[in-house]
Amino acid sequence: MPALDITDYVDWDWLPGAADEIKVYLTRLLTEGSIVAHAVDSRSKSIASFQEKCARKGYDNPRLEVTDTVAVRLIMYSVTDKDRAVELVRERFDVAEDFNPGDLKDSERRGYDCAHLIVTGEKGTGSRDWMVAGGSLSKYFDRFGGLEIQIRTVASHAWAEFEHSRRYKGTLYEKISEHDRRTIDQLFGAAADARSALDETFTAIERVLANPTRPLASYDEEDEGEEDSVALSTATDEDAGAGTVDDDSASRAVPVDVPSLREFLARRFPDDGRGSDKGVEFACELVGACGIRTIQSLGFELGAIDGAEVRELMSTTIDVTRVRRLDDELLAVFGEDYINWTASIGSVGRREDQLRWRFDRLRDKVTLRRRTVTYQLFGADCPSDVVAVKMPAARVVRELAKIIADRRGPESVVLDGDVSVDDDLTPSTRALPVRLDDGSQIWVATNLKRSASERLMRTMVDTSEGLDLRVVRNGELFLP
């Protein structure tokens, strides 16, 4: 084996720093995916250990051939989290080797189950500059052949630690008879089967926690039943008075932009990290994807949840930014819709997967407060007996459909599955006929959740170019 020169010895001064940096890096990576590890342990080989391995293996180029000079082990609670952690590492790093040594063992030596990945640096795409510029980890990837990342479950770790101590490096094991060694091998096989069963049981427990059959506390969004009145454009004076607001009130709302959202986040999450301007721009995109245009509307939507409860469910092992807290709370409020709306936003390649992993912690576990959401219509093309009247979401859909159909014709407002000129919508929509000014009628779905109603409102307003129509939600401009 080539002898180590003085330069090699100097390198060992900073290798512990590289081990510390990869530990911080991977802890942060797991936090981004809302994965909590039992342990993240890193180490750098001592010079003596490095030399011993080189002598034993007969390496010609030790610096490149020893791929665990710095190594880190992630111990996860379940196979689900283990597999997710492996995927995050594969996405983030250039991987030179990716294998499970246990797969190479015969059945009599079964039991070892641990992903081994040798990484050689960050991938060039999607980098977030997580490595310290000029730091020890960056230097390590430049000077050494690879860094080993092991990922296993707590059950696999228990089996591996005992086997490593008693058999793999067990002096007593080598001193006993062949018969006794075979007996121990069989017992380790039985322990391996028990370990596998334990992993399966832990995974089953996690599935129940992620998908509870009975919500602890939640409410269905607005689900309107049929209304007796077919002539929709009627309202009592009492209704009109209660629903009237200043037509210009929406102009006083604060639009969502980087300065206003940064101020909002500082008030809502004062103890969390400020985050970068780029991060707040990302948050603005998330808020916009939810159809939220003003700070007041954002506050109203988040008022449905207890932020402390969400924080507890989404507990992290490291500090996170205010943008991440907002992301979690919007996920808690909008659920699966939020995943669909925001999956493609940002630079994280696996954002949709990570949102689903995070939602496993929130699904049917967050207490949602029932809120009264009312809408009003304004604009020159809005009939006088409808202007400013407070209405539920599904009724606004019908009123908009009537206004547009009266001015553009019934066919102009047809929406597949929701609005039709014939009584052919599915029974589950609980469609009602809406009488038009010329005596004809259209059929409009009424069995709509608020999110579905708002989607239809947006579609109608967007396609009614030339008509002066505005939708106000809880006193603030919602559309256009």
Automatic annotation (TrEMBL):
InterPro entries: NT_sf, RelA_SpoT. Residues 42-172 form the RelA/SpoT domain. This is RelA/SpoT domain-containing protein. It comes from Brachybacterium paraconglomeratum. Residues 219-229, 236-248 have a biased composition (Acidic residues). Pfam families: RelA_SpoT. One of its GO terms (biological process) is guanosine tetraphosphate metabolic process. Residues 214-252 are annotated as: Disordered.
